[in-house]
């Protein structure tokens, strides 16, 4: 695949856990984001990949970009560089932005790093919360809990809004917060109408150097950048109420087959196929 990319002038620029970023010397204002079939859990990239995952999450990002009435980084126009057919269904051609070093996290429910911070401080990112909340509880209203984009391989660090002002300046910090909360409101409402809870998500924004417009970047509202729960399971309150729509099958299997030391075991074919089916189901339910 990389030969086909190189033959078309694409040069590898950056690797994330499950995605790659490419540049093109003849098109400096464009970049290519390619999603792999790799899946990560417990901070490990697992083997094997999940067939179709990259294409399904790319399709979900594209669909959300269409649903959201905000400027985004998808490239459009005539003189676009060719993308190899081998990766086209899991690739996004995007405009190069001046990226802001803030992960714009919005939480409608208390979970993950928010739950960890809440237990220690009864707050998240400096936002005080009611006492007595449990893991997975819905918050009184969605909260903006930014994180500082840590270098590759390190954990992002939850920061206060005031710290984000120091990082990007007051106007941009406020614009990032307002845009993130507005998009989350729209997306969580749409997901709820499909019986899916959008518990939390992470946006990335940049400023378009050609226009100065704040622009939604990266992937958007995928199950890699968001927590999606099944609304019926959540309402039932059982042990699966916080089951990640797509990764719970993998997490449950690892919990019973790995002691969390060393590298995780290879996923058996049945787990791989059931997980692939869950990615397909999530896309089908959200985009129905
Ligand atoms: N999106 C976007 C983007 C843009 N439109 N303009 C400039 N830079 C970026 C950009 C830089 N790092 N990332 C994260 C990232 C994404 C995908 C794969 C990776 F390996 C890493 C995104």
TrEMBL record:
> What Pfam families would the database entry show?
SAICAR_synt
**Can you cite a GO biological process for this protein?**
'de novo' IMP biosynthetic process
- Which key words tag this protein in UniProt? ATP-binding, Ligase, Nucleotide-binding, Purine biosynthesis
Q: Copy the pathway line from the protein's UniProt record.
A: Purine metabolism; IMP biosynthesis via de novo pathway; 5-amino-1-(5-phospho-D-ribosyl)imidazole-4-carboxamide from 5-amino-1-(5-phospho-D-ribosyl)imidazole-4-carboxylate: step 1/2
Q: What's any one GO cellular component for it?
A: cytoplasm
EC numbers on record: 6.3.2.6
Q: Using the UniProt record, name the top-level EC class of this enzyme in a single word.
A: ligase
Q: Where is the signal peptide?
A: none
Which GO terms label this protein's molecular function in UniProt?
Answer: ATP binding; phosphoribosylaminoimidazolesuccinocarboxamide synthase activity
Listed InterPro entries? SAICAR_synt/ADE2_N (IPR028923), SAICAR_synth (IPR001636), SAICAR_synthetase_CS (IPR018236)
The reactions it catalyses are: 5-amino-1-(5-phospho-D-ribosyl)imidazole-4-carboxylate + L-aspartate + ATP = (2S)-2-[5-amino-1-(5-phospho-beta-D-ribosyl)imidazole-4-carboxamido]succinate + ADP + phosphate + 2 H(+)
Q: Which family does it belong to?
A: Belongs to the SAICAR synthetase family.
Query: Could you identify this protein by its name?
Result: Phosphoribosylaminoimidazole-succinocarboxamide synthase
Q: Which organism is it from?
A: Microcella pacifica
């Amino acid at each position: 695949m990389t030969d086909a990319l190189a033959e078309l002038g694409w040069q590898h620029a950056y690797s994330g856990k499950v995605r790659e970023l490419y540049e093109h010397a003849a098109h400096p204002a464009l970049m290519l984001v390619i999603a792999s079939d790799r899946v990560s859990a417990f901070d490990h990239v697992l083997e094997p990949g999940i067939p179709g995952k990259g294409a399904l999450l790319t399709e979900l990002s594209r669909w959300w970009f269409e649903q959201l009435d905000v400027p985004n980084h998808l490239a459009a126009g005539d003189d676009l560089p060719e993308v190899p057919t081998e990766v086209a269904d899991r690739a996004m051609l995007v405009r190069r932005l001046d990226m802001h070093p803030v992960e714009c996290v919005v939480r409608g429910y208390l979970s993950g790093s928010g739950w960890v911070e809440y237990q220690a401080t009864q707050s998240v990112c400096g936002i005080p919360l009611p006492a007595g909340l449990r893991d997975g509880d819905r918050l009184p209203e969605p909260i903006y809990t930014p994180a500082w984009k840590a270098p590759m391989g390190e954990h992002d660090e939850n920061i206060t809004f005031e710290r984000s002002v120091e990082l990007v300046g007051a106007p941009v910090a406020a614009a990032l917060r307002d845009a993130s909360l507005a998009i989350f409101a729209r997306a969580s409402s749409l997901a709820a109408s499909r019986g899916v809870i959008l518990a939390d998500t992470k946006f990335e924004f940049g400023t378009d150097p050609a226009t100065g417009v704040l622009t939604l970047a990266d992937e958007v509202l995928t199950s890699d950048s968001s927590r999606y729960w099944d609304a019926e399971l959540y309402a039932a309150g059982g042990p699966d109420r916080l089951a990640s729509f797509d990764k719970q099958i993998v997490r449950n299997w690892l919990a019973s087959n790995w002691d969390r030391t060393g590298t995780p075991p290879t996923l058996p074919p049945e787990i791989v196929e059931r997980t692939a089916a869950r990615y397909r189901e999530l896309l089908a339910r959200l985009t129905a």
